[in-house]
């Protein structure tokens, strides 16, 4: 269990101490539930009421916060409390894992594999032939790394991750449990008798630096060439990236989204949950896609916001939704007009 004083934490997040700088904490807690010996934060004004009732020993708050009544906790004032808390969590996690070094028994490491400094290989992990691991790589239980895989520095592979042969991972990557990198793309050719012949998937997956891949996400290897996840991409749980897809840098994709084969996703794109795309299309830089949208054609306009199925401009889609609600009334008016026209025709 790690223990830090308010002064030590302030140094980590460049904060200003307001209160007892010597008070220490060993755990994190939500502001509405935190207990003595825990640290919390306040970023959302909706939770300000708990600032005056929480039992937390230390609270990270914004510089701009004005207290409405005295509090017992020590405050750490920073420009952005949420960002500072995220930084603290990151540093805490790094401290917890930095002592994980060495190779546990019952793991398998090929004699041709090369492991960098400060590596950790847990029991029941499998590292295949000609694998190259950089420094500070953490391989947790039941991870499988296929032959010829190359992995950079500061990479964490959580339990149950599978990385198929020939894939390449950069530096500062986290892959969560159950993710599969480099499984075969969905390639089958129809034959004359109506069956399907498998098309060999001979490419690989390349994941650049500072990428995070969520649990049970799958990234298929390319048929030929590479499926590429660019620098800074964040993939949620249960995301499917098909063969020969390219995801641009700093794009974020939420859970249950599926990107079809050979689609090119631009830089800084944001996709909500359950988005689906057709294959062989492009999505421009900075596009925001609302959850459950279906993208059936190329999106060429940068920084546009799209919604619906088939996905279209967000404002247009909202107007269409309003009109859909009015359809029963419109149908009734049309029928009334048809009767009126019929009556006028008879009189004529």
Short description:
This protein is of the alpha/beta class and 348 residues long. Helix content is 17%, strand content 29%.
Name the poorly predicted regions. Answer: none
H/I helix tally: 3
Q: Structural class of the secondary structure composition?
A: alpha/beta
Give the overall shape: flat
Tell me the strand percentage band. 25-35%
Report the average pLDDT across residues: 94
Helix amount, in percent? 10-25%
Radius of gyration using CA atoms only? 27 Å
The CATH first-level class of the largest domain comes to Mainly Beta
Tell me the major beta sheet. 12 strands, mixed
How are the strands ordered across the major sheet? 8-11-14-17-20-25-28-31-34-37-39-40
CATH topology of the largest domain: UDP N-Acetylglucosamine Acyltransferase, domain 1
